[in-house]
Specification:
It is a single chain. With 92 residues, the chain is mainly β. Strands 1, 2, 5, 6, 7, 8 and 9 form a 7-stranded antiparallel beta sheet that branches. Strands 3-4 form a two-stranded antiparallel ribbon. Strand 7 and strand 8 form a beta hairpin.
């Protein structure tokens, strides 16, 4: 598994990746305000051994409403299957 173990406490398996979301959903109190569904963006932190396209440090666009959010050590991480990644963004 590639990635920096000191920054991410999660070890993805298979073709799963750990992403640090850049644009969390807008919240208003206990309500979540949903905009038009559009790709979300984030930075790949760790990848599983079967990942083909994602590498740690790259920015990606991924399908909205996918993955599983995990809060650990005061940070929010997104476990995402590589098939939900739409594009690797340039200028990473």
């Amino acid at each position: 598994m590639k990635g920096n173990a000191q920054t991410c406490p999660l070890l993805p398996v298979g073709d799963w990746v750990v992403v640090r979301p850049e644009d969390p959903p807008t919240t208003a109190g206990s309500l979540i305000v949903l905009n038009q569904p559009r790709p979300r963006k984030g930075k790949v932190v760790r990848v599983g051994p079967e990942c083909l396209y994602a590498d740690p440090g790259t920015r990606v666009a991924y399908k909205p409403f996918r993955g599983t959010e995990v809060e650990l050590r005061g940070a929010t991480w997104l476990l995402l299957n590589e098939e939900d990644i739409l594009a690797v963004l340039g200028g990473s």
